[in-house]
């Protein structure tokens, strides 16, 4: 089947914009994309009325937790829900995510291995959701942060076993906890967790299987240790110092800032159900997090969009709020979009397939009423999202009913 999107504004994920462009999709791939005057539409293509709209690559969220639902006390919920209930909820959250124009996610911590069943169900068409890359259980030290969705391990031998368990279950990457966190009682975000040897062991074991490692790290000490160990990305990067920023640039390590996670938690009033210690930690770090993001942007650190969706009041389906926050802290709208398309695809190792609108790439597209380069908030307005296409199939939005 062929679909033609004629006379649209094209944001291609490469940093350029074309007015009055035409994009032709054949089966699951982009056949052509360019100025309408020079782009041939093959006979038999289905024309969609998208004149005046904007088409851009499907957005990529590099940090979600489909097993968490944004409840005030997510730790208690995930600890008390049965595996079956968690999986049913995760399927619902996946549907909300794709409906918001997020066509690929990286799930970086799930209680148990149910996330791999969800990934398979989505790929088989049994459940509607985005493409999923999953880490399985986060690997943490005994008593460490994220133990409620983690696999506790201590020392190189146990680290190897924990990594291999995730890989055997189907992990696309490994997630390691390199500092304390906000949600876990008794842990400090400033303090490093795991030794350099332990993190390096995790990286080496993952790389033996051709996989990358994402490291949760709020504090600068944890960040620097993880970068030295060879991780691919630092998740959060909340309390960055100059030395950490320099290390990230030198080693070309991505950060996934997850600005929305701290902002939504810090912004809720005491008594809303979020444990007081969690709110306190979030509020204490919010200003420093914003400063770290500005520093990273100014220094040219590689930034990929991620939301930490699933944390308190940080709901699946509202992922594009992260782009608003990035722009508010100094990114241009185009830079923010690139962080959620080409840059995110590069981090995930999928830049040969997704992240840009080019012939031969998979047809992951979103079609928006209006111009997000003038108003980035359009990307989080479900009423402006005319269509979401995943591998050439319109799966959501009003345009889905026209094909």
Question: What's the SSE blueprint?
Answer:
Elements lengths: L1 E10 L5 E10 L2 E7 L10 E3 L4 E5 L1 E6 L9 H7 L2 H17 L2 E6 L6 H10 L7 E4 L3 E3 L9 E3 L2 H15 L4 E4 L18 H13 L4 E7 H10 L3 E7 L2 H10 L2 E3 L2 H8 L9 H24 L2 E2 L17 H8 L4 H7 L2 H7 L16 E5 L15 E6 L2 E4 L7
Parallel strand pairs: 1-4, 1-5, 6-7, 7-8, 9-10, 11-12, 12-13, 13-14, 14-15
Antiparallel strand pairs: 1-2, 2-3, 5-16, 16-17, 17-18
Helix pairs in contact: 4-5, 5-6, 6-7, 8-9, 10-11
Describe this structure in a few short sentences.
The protein is of the alpha/beta class and 403 residues long. It has helices at residues 74-80, 83-99, 114-123, 155-169, 196-208, 220-229, 242-251, 259-266, 276-299, 321-328, 333-339, 342-348, and strands at residues 2-11, 17-26, 29-35, 46-48, 53-57, 59-64, 102-107, 131-134, 138-140, 150-152, 174-177, 213-219, 233-239, 254-256, 302-303, 365-369, 385-390, 393-396.
Q: How would you portray this structure in words?
A:
Residues 54-395 form the Amidohydrolase-related domain. This is Amidohydrolase family protein. It comes from Nitrospira tepida. One of its GO terms (molecular function) is hydrolase activity, acting on carbon-nitrogen (but not peptide) bonds. The chain has 403 residues and is of the alpha/beta class. The protein has two domains: 2-57 and 356-402, Urease, subunit C, domain 1; 59-319, Alpha-Beta Barrel (TIM Barrel). The protein has helices at 74-80, 83-99, 114-123, 155-169, 196-208, 220-229, 242-251, 259-266, 276-299, 321-328, 333-339, 342-348, and strands at 2-11, 17-26, 29-35, 46-48, 53-57, 59-64, 102-107, 131-134, 138-140, 150-152, 174-177, 213-219, 233-239, 254-256, 302-303, 365-369, 385-390, 393-396. The strands form four sheets. Strands 1, 2, 3, 4, 5, 16, 17 and 18 form an eight-stranded mixed sheet that branches. Strands 11-12-13-14-15 form a five-stranded parallel sheet, sandwiched between helices. Strand 1 and strand 2 (17-26) form a beta hairpin. Helix 4 (155-169) runs parallel beside helix 5. The longest helix is centred in the C-terminal third of the chain and has 24 residues, at 276-299. The model has no long low-confidence stretch (mean pLDDT 96).
């Amino acid at each position: 089947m062929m679909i033609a999107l004629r006379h649209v504004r094209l944001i291609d994920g490469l940093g350029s914009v074309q007015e009055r462009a035409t994009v032709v999709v054949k089966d699951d791939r982009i056949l052509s994309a360019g100025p309408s005057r020079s782009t041939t539409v093959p006979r038999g293509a289905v024309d969609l009325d998208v004149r005046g709209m904007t088409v851009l690559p499907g957005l990529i969220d590099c940090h979600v937790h489909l097993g968490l639902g944004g409840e005030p006390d997510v730790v208690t919920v995930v600890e008390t829900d049965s595996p079956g209930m968690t999986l049913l909820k995760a399927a619902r959250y996946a549907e909300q995510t794709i409906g918001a124009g997020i066509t690929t996610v990286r799930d970086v911590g799930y209680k148990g291995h149910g996330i791999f069943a969800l990934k398979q169900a989505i790929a088989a068409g049994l459940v509607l959701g985005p493409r999923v890359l999953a880490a399985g259980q986060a690997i943490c030290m005994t008593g460490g942060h994220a133990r409620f969705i983690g696999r506790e391990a201590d020392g190189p031998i146990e680290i190897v076993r924990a990594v291999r368990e995730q890989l055997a279950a189907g992990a696309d990457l490994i997630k390691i906890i390199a500092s304390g966190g906000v949600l876990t009682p008794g842990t400090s975000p400033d303090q490093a967790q795991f030794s350099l040897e332990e993190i390096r062991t995790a990286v080496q074991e993952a790389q033996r299987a051709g996989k990358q490692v994402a490291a949760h790290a709020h504090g600068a000490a944890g960040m620097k240790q993880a970068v030295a160990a060879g991780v691919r990305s630092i998740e959060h990067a909340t309390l960055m110092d100059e030395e950490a920023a320099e290390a990230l640039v030198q080693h070309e390590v991505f950060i996934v800032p997850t600005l929305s996670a701290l902002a939504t938690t810090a912004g809720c009033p005491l008594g809303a159900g979020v444990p007081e210690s969690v709110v306190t930690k979030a509020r204490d770090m919010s200003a420093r997090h914003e400063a770290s993001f500005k520093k990273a942007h100014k220094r040219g650190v590689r930034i990929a969009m991620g939301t930490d969706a699933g944390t308190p009041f940080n709901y699946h389906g509202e992922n594009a709020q992260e782009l608003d926050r990035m722009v508010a802290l100094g990114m241009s709208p185009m830079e923010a979009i690139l962080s959620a398309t080409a840059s995110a695809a590069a981090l995930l190792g999928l830049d040969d397939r997704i992240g840009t609108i080019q012939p031969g790439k998979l047809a992951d597209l979103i079609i928006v009423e209006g111009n997000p380069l003038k108003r980035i908030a359009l990307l989080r307005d479900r009423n402006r999202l005319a269509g979401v296409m995943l591998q050439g199939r319109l799966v959501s939005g009003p345009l889905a009913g026209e094909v």
